[in-house]
């Protein structure tokens, strides 16, 4: 199978930023790979449904700032808040980088040193995720990123780390790279929200050691014209757990890649997402789960509500390697089309080389269930309200994947707000 | 059997059983060779070969031009590499593109004149052409369903049975080479309209060098009085078979068509690149069933047929219906996606498939359902079974175009793995541009259920029988879609192709 980029795209000439030994090695390795693969384009199998040209263009397309009086999500959550403005860390607006059980350092500081623990994660998990499918935007990020944090959880974190990405300049172009390592038995929650910039290329690498647990909840900013490409790379040790959820409302282009690798037995991973798109909205979730250990469980749950020409894409893959017996792989992707102009495209893949496994995937697309709608309206609920109720219930099934109730409620409130404004 | 030596025997399976299973081995029943004098075109492929094939078939000028256009286009194309199959590069110059038994140079006027050796071959394969022909004049006993056969041997059609009786009903059933001469207006009107000359690499190659195949025309309002079938046999060595089948069902007509294939057991892989085009007009229904049992290669993966086939149906008319059913047990490498273009309003496409890959076989197969018309419906049921060191991939597309109001699709693809050295993969593409369309896709992958096996074993079945029974249960949805006499055969075939796979 050749899922590699066959038609080599533009090869950007890049010079990696200066830094200490470990980071320079990682950056150069990524830059070398990028010059081999070139940037992605529409003819690549994994960019078939999403045109990457605005993500790979030399300059970011300007994006207007979205003015809103609504509260930021997770505002009430007690967390260490770290603020970025147009992709640049703003220490003045951020909390002190202190958290019991967790070491937090900027990538810039860590990059000064010649030896750093981050060298075992930065570019390493991303590099592993480059096979069998090339991910040139992630290579670019690893080679060029100067913004981001290196975080190491040694025990149970007292509270979450919350990244807030503010967007202030219409032409900002951000590259952010977070490196996260959870030692054995550690527990950490990372929250992210905000649009970040007119264009953002974000990578997060998460090493989850044995018995550690990582939670990630993200709300992508509502700026209509922003363009976003994110990658999460994770490697899971024995009995570890990884849970990631993303809510996306608005944004002209969003591509979220999640690359998950099980290397220790008895581990669990969930990647879930809910998105609501209206008009010029293109949302792509691309997931690649590799089972290379025994008795692991993976779940992918993605729901998309689309209207006014919005496009939803889901490309999910479960790869079960020959010795990954007792794997339980589950994948569901569903599209709800609110009108005739919207599009949903899905490619739910299974590649299985072990016999004692239970893997399943399902994918459905359709309009709102007329029977349910009739049931509600016949009980006196106005048509629009009934439609909203059913839409929220549909997306709610993805939000249910978020363990923390407070966070889940925040996400539901965000969605209800969107529904309400639609009629306003 | 060799492949079994490497398979780790699961706990609870006693050594005796394993040995018994090994001794059974994966026999290929149809691996014999017919010793017959053949006439070949020179090896290799160039414009002269294309001209020669056209000349041998006594074709009119337009047909030659059609072939040459395809050939020139093919030269500019690249072999597709996206399928999950791995095989040595084919040397297209190291093949014969035309081979016919010498006795067929003068085309026999009736089956009586056909070389007895050829008839014997088909008899051995379970298709007694002559007896069938003799019975033609006799009133068939009640309830006995008859099947008309077009027998294709390497590059030529040996004969077609029940031709006269079919003609009475207005049905044309003959080899495509005859059709080009006898019914040029029909062939010209429909050939290449479903699978264009430049459709894909192998279809284009076929368009240039196809030597024979079947042609079926069912006139308006006619229900074809019997099942039609084509039996393809590859016999000559180093010879590619490129057959072309065209079926046209006029308004309100119905036809059920069966296709069977076998080839001798050889060490060197052989290429088979066929094209099948179906056209269904208003209210017409075509049922197309395939039992593909080409030689799959030996346990080491030596030899076997590369089966690179393009099959497509165009449901052109309103309320037309096409049903593809396939039982794929043979071939070393399969690359095949029988598809439906649902153009007419209320048209329907169905795809039922069982693909079994054992030993070193690789299958990448599935379907495409392109919904263009209103209220179009499609249903896909695919069962993939992998055993030995085989790789089995379902690859499919369901596409709902903006104008396909109220279109429906239901897809179910299940994979079963027997042994831990094989692979089962699912690559569906779902593209929906219409909110009144409803698409549902489900897929599961599992192994043969231990409880079910235990239950069968407890009742005295040996392990092999038990697996065959469980697998037949797994395949039931598809087997039921086959014409009755085929279903029994297919059920046996399912069991045979899994012989020796129990580990």
What does this structure look like?
- The complex is a heterodimer of chains A (424) and B (503).
- With 424 residues, chain A is α/β, with parallel strands linked by helices.
- Chain A has helices at 21-37, 53-56, 107-112, 124-128, 136-144, 370-378, 383-399, 405-423; strands spanning 80-85, 88-89, 102-106, 149-153, 161-166, 173-182, 187-194, 199-208, 213-220, 227-236, 241-249, 253-262, 268-278, 282-291, 297-307, 311-320, 328-337, 343-352, 358-366.
- In chain A, 20% of the residues lie in helices and 38% in strands.
- Chain A has a 10-stranded mixed beta sheet with strand order 2-1-5-7-9-11-13-15-17-19, covered by helices on one side. Chain A has a 9-stranded mixed beta sheet with strand order 3-4-6-8-10-12-14-16-18.
- In chain A, helix 1 (21-37) runs antiparallel to helix 5 (136-144).
- Chain B has one domain (32-497).
- Chain B contains 13 helices and 24 strands.
- Chain B has helices at residues 2-5, 15-24, 47-56, 61-75, 116-124, 129-135, 163-168, 176-182, 184-190, 201-209, 450-458, 463-479, 484-497; strands at 38-40, 99-101, 147-153, 156-160, 172-175, 214-218, 227-233, 244-249, 254-262, 270-272, 275-280, 285-292, 305-315, 321-328, 333-336, 339-342, 348-357, 362-365, 368-371, 377-387, 391-400, 408-418, 423-432, 438-447.
- In chain B, strand 3 (147-153) and strand 4 form a beta hairpin.
- Strand 18 (343-352) of chain A pairs antiparallel with strand 23 (423-432) of chain B.
């Amino acid at each position: 199978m050749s899922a590699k980029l066959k038609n080599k795209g533009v090869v950007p000439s890049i010079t990696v930023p200066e830094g200490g030994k470990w980071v320079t090695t990682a950056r150069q390795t990524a830059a070398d790979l990028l010059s081999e693969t070139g940037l992605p384009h529409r003819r690549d199998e994994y960019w078939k449904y999403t045109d990457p040209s605005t993500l790979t263009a030399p300059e970011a397309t300007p994006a207007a700032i979205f003015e809103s009086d609504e509260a930021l999500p997770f505002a009430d959550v007690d967390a260490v808040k770290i603020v970025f403005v147009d992709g640049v860390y703003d220490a003045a607006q951020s909390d002190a980088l202190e958290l019991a059980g967790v070491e937090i350092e900027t990538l810039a500081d860590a990059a000064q040193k010649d030896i750093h623990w981050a060298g075992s994660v930065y570019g390493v998990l991303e590099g592993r995720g480059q096979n069998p499918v090339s991910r040139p935007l992630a290579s670019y990020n690893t080679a060029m990123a100067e913004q981001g944090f290196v975080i190491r959880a040694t025990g149970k974190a007292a509270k979450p780390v919350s990244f807030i990405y503010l967007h202030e300049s219409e032409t900002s172009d951000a590259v952010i790279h977070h490196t996260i390592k959870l030692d054995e038995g550690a527990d950490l929650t990372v929250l992210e929200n905000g649009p970040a910039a007119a264009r953002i290329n974000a990578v997060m690498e998460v090493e989850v050691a044995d018995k550690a647990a990582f939670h990630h909840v993200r709300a992508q900013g509502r700026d209509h014209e922003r363009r976003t490409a994110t990658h999460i790379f994770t490697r899971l040790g024995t009995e570890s757990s990884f849970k990631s959820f993303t809510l996306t409302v608005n944004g002209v282009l969003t591509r979220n890649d999640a690359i998950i690798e099980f290397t220790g037995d008895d581990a669990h991973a969930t990647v879930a997402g809910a998105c609501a798109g209206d008009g010029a909205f293109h949302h792509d979730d691309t997931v690649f789960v590799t089972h290379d250990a025994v008795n692991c469980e993976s779940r992918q749950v993605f729901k998309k509500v689309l209207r006014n020409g919005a496009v939803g894409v889901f490309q999910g893959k479960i790869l079960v390697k020959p010795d990954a017996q007792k794997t339980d792989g589950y994948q569901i992707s569903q599209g709800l089309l609110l009108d005739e102009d919207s599009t949903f495209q899905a490619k739910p893949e299974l590649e299985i080389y072990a016999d004692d496994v239970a893997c399943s995937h399902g994918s459905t697309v359709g309009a709102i269930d007329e029977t349910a709608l009739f049931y509600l309206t016949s009980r006196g609920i106005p048509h629009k309200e009934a439609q909203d109720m059913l839409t929220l219930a549909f997306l709610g099934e993805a939000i249910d994947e978020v363990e923390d109730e407070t966070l889940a409620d925040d996400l539901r409130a965000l969605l209800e707000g969107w529904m309400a404004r639609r009629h306003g | 059997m060799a492949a079994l030596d490497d398979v780790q025997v699961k706990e609870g399976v006693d050594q005796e059983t394993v040995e018994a299973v090994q001794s059974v081995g994966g026999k290929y029943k149809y691996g014999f060779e017919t010793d017959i004098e053949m006439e070949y075109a020179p090896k290799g492929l160039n414009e002269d070969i294309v001209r020669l094939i056209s000349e041998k078939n006594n074709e009119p000028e337009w047909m030659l031009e059609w072939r040459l256009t395809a050939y020139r286009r093919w030269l500019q194309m690249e072999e597709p590499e996206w399928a999950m199959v791995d095989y040595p590069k084919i040397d297209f110059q190291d093949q014969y593109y035309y081979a016919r038994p010498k006795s067929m140079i003068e085309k026999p006027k009736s089956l009586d004149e056909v070389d007895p050796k050829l008839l014997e071959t088909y008899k051995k394969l379970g298709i007694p052409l002559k007896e069938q022909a003799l019975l033609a004049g006799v009133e068939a006993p009640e309830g006995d369903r008859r099947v008309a056969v077009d027998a294709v041997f390497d590059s030529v059609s040996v004969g077609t049975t029940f031709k006269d009786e079919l003609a009475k009903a207005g049905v044309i059933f003959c080899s495509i080479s005859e059709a080009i001469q006898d019914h040029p207006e029909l062939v010209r009107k429909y050939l290449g309209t479903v699978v264009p000359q430049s459709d894909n690499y192998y279809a284009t190659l076929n368009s240039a060098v196809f030597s024979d195949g079947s042609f079926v025309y069912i006139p308006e309002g006619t229900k074809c009085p019997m099942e039609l079938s084509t039996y393809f046999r590859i016999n000559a060595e180093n010879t590619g078979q490129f057959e072309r089948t065209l079926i046209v069902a006029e308004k309100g007509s119905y036809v059920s068509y069966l296709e069977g294939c076998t080839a001798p057991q050889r060490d060197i892989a052989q290429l088979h690149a066929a094209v099948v085009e179906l056209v269904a007009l208003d209210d017409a229904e075509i049922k197309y069933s395939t039992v593909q049992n080409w030689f799959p290669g030996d346990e080491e993966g030596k030899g076997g047929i590369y089966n690179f086939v393009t099959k497509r149906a165009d449901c052109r008319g309103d309320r037309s219906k096409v049903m593809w059913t396939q039982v794929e047990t043979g071939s070393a490498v399969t690359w095949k996606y029988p598809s439906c273009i649902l153009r007419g309003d209320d048209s329907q496409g169905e795809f039922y498939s069982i693909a079994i890959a054992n030993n070193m076989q690789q299958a990448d197969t599935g379907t495409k359902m392109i919904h263009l018309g209103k209220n179009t419906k499609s249903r896909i049921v695919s069962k993939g079974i992998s055993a030995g060191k085989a790789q089995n991939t379902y690859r499919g597309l369901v596409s709902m175009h903006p104008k396909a109001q109220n279109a429906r699709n239901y897809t179910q693809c299940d994979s079963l793995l027997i042994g831990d050295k094989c692979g089962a993969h699912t690559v569906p593409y779902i593209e929906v541009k219409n909110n009144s369309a409803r698409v549902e896709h489900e897929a599961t992958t599992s192994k043969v259920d231990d409880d079910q096996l235990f239950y069968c074993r407890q009742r005295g079945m040996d392990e092999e029988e038990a697996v065959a029974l469980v697998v037949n249960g797994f395949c039931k949805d598809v087997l039921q879609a086959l014409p009755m006499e085929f279903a029994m055969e297919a059920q046996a075939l399912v069991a045979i192709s899994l012989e020796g796979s129990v580990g």
